[in-house]
């Protein structure tokens, strides 16, 4: 945005450029003019600023997050109201999100993944101690600095657990967060506690080590259903090289029953540190395919710190702390009826005959039909269709594709059947669901709006914005001249809209004409379109008379074509007045002439009056005339000489 149209909130926070967009606000890089430091300013969408519920949630976010001062949490400095909306001022963290890292670099090394998870757990543990649950832990809310430091951002749907003053914000059944990283209790719309954050963090750890989250689907509802009903594929079935201990930690976080997860974020962090140190961990490695009998159990809403709120039975992939039980009571064995030994012999003979017939049948089947060859289906969700198709075909399967509109990038695989890591017959078909990109959205017409107004209108509809500065003599500086795609047309949600913003009239640089004759200087200025020229005279001992001493504005300055250019023309050196020295002594005359900046030359003239001896008889130029500095004034000096007497006739 141009300097003239710079947006400043509360006379202090100067917005520079947009950094990103969240569920109810957009974030700008700004400068705190008071403290002269960069900050991030989150601005509530204007359309939501009139919703009292959203504003209240926005205010509570600021108050809750402002109390969370921790090295691994993005700090909140200020909040307020400006320009018809509300904003929060946060610490600006230079770096990139964990989502960017996974997208651009792929899977994270297991040890580095454990370190990142431990830092996130430290941040969550501190927040939980302050009775704040994040509720939206995901890679996009984790920032990594160039030095590798980890900071958790955007407590956008967090709230203080002790605050229940507003039923609209705290009622059970309000589903908030991101479906891919939901906990089962979030998916059910039940109340959540800190263990919900640990489940979401477990999904982040799973995604870092395997390259994709454990559950995907065609819609948020489908994904939420899997969180409640299905168990994730153990990470080592996707990559057998992953450490068993890290897999155990991941699956403990992903237990459906919160009671089977880590008791706290501090406990999770401690187990990750034990893993990194090579010590024995709290979680137990998976020894058999996971079974989670509590996956389909109903769970009553639980409050923070409630230890007895779960209705479902034990859930998890390792020992869950519950005692084994027998679903039947102990009964006394019924007395077996007595059978004759002949009956037993006949029964044994019959069983032997049946076993022989079964053996012959199986043997004939094996000879007539070759064994079915199976192979593990590769996991390709999240990959580009071309890459995914090559991987499926390389594993020996056929590929069938179906395209659907989705938020994922165009041609990205969003689901597959059979699921990753399942066994299937070689040559069978794997169906890939492929994104056609987001459904088209009507593009707002922003021509004539200011750059900020246009940016807000487009971002509110889910578009990205690229502003381009364009010189224009007619449209006010800072307003949109045109846009591409055009307003009221259709474009995919998330597409980039280019807006051409007026930069005002074009400018030219003043050419350097210093030292040039006036006529040449005028020609040079007119040659670049500068025709409004004036002159002024100025004496100069260095620049010849009639030549340019300087220009105003000076050479190189960018000006509009109608700008007035003044040429400062040399009138030659300044002249001085010749002093009057007639009648003065030679010495005094010389002092006076040289003080005026002139030189003195002398000539002698004989005088008969001894009083005129050594005095100036005349001067040239005359007194009061103008001369250039350094010019010579010639003076005539009287010299007395006694006249020679004629010889005395008497002396002859």
Could you walk me through the main structural features you see in this protein, from its secondary elements to its overall organization?
This protein is an alpha+beta fold and 652 residues long. It folds into 6 domains: 3-91, Phosphorylase Kinase, domain 1; 96-277, Orthogonal Bundle (Transferase(Phosphotransferase), domain 1); 374-435, Trypsin Inhibitor V, Chain A (2-Layer Sandwich), CATH 3.30.10.20; 440-502, Trypsin Inhibitor V, Chain A (2-Layer Sandwich); 510-570, Trypsin Inhibitor V, Chain A (2-Layer Sandwich), CATH 3.30.10; 576-640, Trypsin Inhibitor V, Chain A (2-Layer Sandwich), CATH 3.30.10.20. Helix content is 27%, strand content 23%. It is built from 16 helices and 31 strands. Strands 1-2-3-4-6-5 form a 6-stranded antiparallel beta sheet. Strands 7-9-10 form a 3-stranded antiparallel beta sheet. α4 runs antiparallel to α7 and α4 (110-129) runs antiparallel to α11 (265-277). Mean pLDDT is 81; it is low at 157-177 and 287-340.
């Amino acid at each position: 945005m141009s300097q003239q149209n710079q947006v400043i909130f509360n006379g202090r926070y100067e917005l520079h450029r947009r950094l990103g967009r969240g569920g109810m606000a957009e974030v700008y890089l700004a400068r705190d003019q008071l403290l002269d430091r960069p900050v991030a300013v989150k601005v509530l969408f204007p359309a939501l600023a009139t919703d009292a519920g959203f504003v209240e949630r926005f205010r509570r976010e600021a108050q809750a997050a402002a109390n969370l001062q921790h090295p691994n949490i993005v700090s909140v400095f200020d909040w307020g109201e400006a320009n018809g909306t509300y904003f929060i001022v946060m610490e600006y963290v230079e770096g990139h999100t964990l989502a960017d890292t996974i997208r651009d670099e792929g899977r994270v090394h297991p040890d580095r993944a454990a370190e990142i998870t431990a830092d996130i757990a430290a941040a969550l543990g501190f927040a939980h101690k302050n009775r704040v649950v994040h509720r939206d832990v995901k890679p996009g809310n984790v920032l990594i600095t160039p030095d590798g430091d980890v900071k958790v951002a955007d407590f956008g749907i967090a709230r203080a657990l002790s605050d229940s003053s507003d039923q609209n914000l705290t009622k059970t059944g309000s589903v908030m967060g991101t479906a891919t990283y939901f906990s089962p209790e979030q998916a059910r719309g039940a109340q959540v506690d800190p263990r919900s954050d640990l489940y979401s963090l477990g999904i982040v750890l799973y995604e870092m080590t395997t390259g994709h989250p454990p559950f995907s689907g065609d819609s948020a509802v489908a994904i939420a259903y899997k969180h409640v009903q299905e168990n994730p594929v153990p990470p080592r079935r996707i990559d057998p090289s992953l450490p068993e201990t890290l897999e155990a930690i991941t699956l403990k976080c992903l237990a459906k029953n919160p009671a089977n997860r880590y008791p706290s974020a501090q406990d999770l962090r401690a187990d990750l540190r034990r893993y990194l140190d090579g010590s024995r961990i709290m979680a137990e490695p998976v020894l058999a395919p996971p079974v989670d009998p509590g996956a389909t159990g109903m769970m009553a809403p639980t409050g923070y710190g409630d230890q007895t709120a779960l209705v479902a039975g034990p859930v998890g992939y390792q020992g869950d702390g519950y005692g084994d039980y027998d679903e039947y009571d102990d009964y006394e064995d019924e007395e077996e009826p007595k059978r004759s030994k002949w009956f037993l012999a006949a029964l044994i003979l019959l069983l032997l005959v049946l076993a022989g017939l079964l053996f012959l049948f199986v043997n004939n089947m094996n000879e007539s039909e070759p064994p079915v060859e199976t192979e593990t289906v590769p996991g390709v969700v999240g990959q580009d269709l071309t890459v995914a198709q090559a991987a499926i075909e390389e594993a020996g399967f056929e590929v069938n594709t179906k395209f659907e509109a989705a938020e994922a990038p165009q041609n990205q695989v969003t689901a597959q059947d059979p699921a990753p890591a399942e066994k299937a017959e070689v040559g069978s078909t794997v169906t890939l669901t492929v994104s056609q990109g987001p459904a088209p959205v009507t593009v707002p017409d922003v021509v004539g709006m200011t750059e900020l107004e246009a940016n807000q209108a487009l971002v509110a509809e889910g578009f990205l914005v690229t502003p381009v500065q364009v010189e224009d003599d007619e449209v006010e500086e800072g307003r949109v001249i045109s846009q591409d795609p055009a307003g009221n047309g259709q474009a995919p949600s998330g597409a980039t809209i280019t807006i051409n913003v007026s930069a005002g009239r074009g400018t030219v640089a003043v050419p350097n004409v210093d030292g040039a004759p006036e006529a040449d200087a005028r020609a040079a200025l007119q040659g670049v379109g500068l025709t409004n020229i004036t002159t002024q005279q100025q004496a100069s001992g260095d620049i010849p008379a009639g030549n340019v001493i300087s220009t105003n504005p000076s050479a190189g300055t960018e000006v509009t074509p109608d700008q007035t250019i003044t040429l400062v023309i040399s009138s030659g050196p300044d002249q001085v007045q010749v002093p009057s020295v007639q009648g003065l002594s030679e010495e005094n005359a010389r002092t006076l002439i040289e003080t005026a900046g002139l030189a003195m030359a002398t000539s002698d003239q004989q005088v008969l009056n001894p009083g005129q001896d050594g005095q100036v008889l005349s001067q040239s130029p005359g007194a009061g005339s103008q001369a250039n500095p350094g010019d010579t004034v010639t003076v005539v000096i009287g010299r007395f000489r006694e006249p020679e007497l004629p010889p005395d006739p008497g002396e002859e």
